[in-house]
## 1
Amino acid sequence: MTDGTARFDREGAQRMDRIAKTVFAPVYPVIAGQILERCGIARGRCVDIGSGSGSLAIALAGISGLAITLLDSSPDMLSVAAENLRETGFSDRCTLLKADVHNIPLPDASVDLVVSRGSVFFWDDLPPAFAEIYRILAPGGRTYIGGGFGSASLRDAIAAEMIRENPEWQTFREKNLGPENRERIGRVLAELGVPHRIVNDGSGFWIMLEKEQ
Ligand code: SAM
């Protein structure tokens, strides 16, 4: 849902929710499965940063025992997410937190898994954002942060549909997931000195930090 017309006010939240439930709908269960497989954390506390209307958190809650905090800086996104949690029956295991990734109001070492899809491209200042994420990770905690569509075939099918609606979408996607941006993010992580691995394949571009035990 990373497109050049992204807005996070009430109208933008409703538009994103509509796209998440239609064109993007098949992506979230695939990514949720990849998160569990690649991170190996299915219990404990998880935070979804830039959760939007909650599709990834809901898919993840459905296949794990994670208690998930949906963190987003947009109150309009969170109010749509609240409705979606109620409708899917996950309100008891998922909580909402209006906050900015650059200043996360959670204690040090309190989170086992941080996930985030399609949000990192909007963060203003990556070094403090990643420092905050590393700070809240518990020993042994991991992250799955980035953007993508789960597989090359899903990506191509979605791109064809999105470009029909908005020809600029492709340019925006290439900018977000292209080599320049990937290298920029890689440099930030190297300078911070946090242990990490980057996945860059058909599933998308994903930053996997791991905090030492
Ligand atoms: N993760 C969702 C998905 O994949 O459907 C939503 C992605 S949407 C393109 C990006 C989200 O990141 C928006 O909900 C926006 O409000 C949130 N966001 C942008 N900047 C943020 C920041 N600095 N801190 C927290 N959330 C942020």
## 2
Amino acid sequence: MSNKAKIVTILKQATEPVSGEQLAETVGVSRTMIWKYIQSLIEEGYRIEAVKKKGYVLQEMSSKISQHALESYLKTNTFARNLHTLDSCSSTQKVANELILNGQAPHGLLVVSDLQTEGKGRLNRPWASTEGKGLWTTWVVRPDLLPHEAPPITLVVALALAVAIERVTSVKVDIKWPNDLLIDGYKTAGILTELQATPDKIEAILIGIGINVLQTAEDFADPLTARATSLQLACDHPINRTELLAEIALELEKAIEKYELQGFRPFMSEWEKRSSMIGEKVTATTVRETIQGIALGINEHGALLVDTGEGVRALFSGDVTL
Ligand code: BTN
């Protein structure tokens, strides 16, 4: 853990002011260095009060996502332990891909950017990635799986995200097959999974996750985002993006490990409980056709089962509306 992360962690846990001397001793640097670190944290947007003759009190974390802030929350073994934080990029998927090509993308790598100029969604749709308002992330995972075992990963990720978001916000999140998270029917997050594999081996999976966190209603005035909402609009307390990111890292790590060991079956019933469409009449558009029917559930491969009245169809990809 970096020295700044140590200082943030100590101050975050403290119930009373922590003196410069105590910090210096615990972190293992001089008091002058502690003072410099504190000034630099304040410049980054942390609110730290110096209480005379007592020490420092952390009043508010910075809203910026930084390595040391994330480290102070992380409870994972590998996820987000390798981290690329960027102020701006075209797309975190592109950055992650370049890191893979350069051999700099171990399992669990996280690329996070405050702004994306060319954020992309499924089916090459644009993805609005406003500066400082969301979590625009790509995770590189290298699971011990065969290529045909990759498709349910999107559903496993959706479930992990829903759990993490609910823990931090207490807002109920539904899953819309295959890759959307909804609050009261409005989209708050999407997942873009890209597989890099040879016929018999997964090289890497790029899991792109976009979450609308801090947007206000005005941010959704554009037709591109009219069916969208943010977590903050639904949550009655301030949301810290870094804390949320650390919870997501933990849930993703646990879920992907579990999927590697046990497959998709243990996820199926919880996934169906959270689905906004099971038992409902749906219209599904795939690359080949549009079908209508009742959504029955999912199978062990993550396919959506739709009863068309003339038989049950298993859909592996597509857009589904109620
Ligand atoms: C979708 O719902 O269509 C998927 C949206 C995925 C958006 C994320 S934001 C971070 C990552 N970088 C991108 O360009 N896209 C994904």
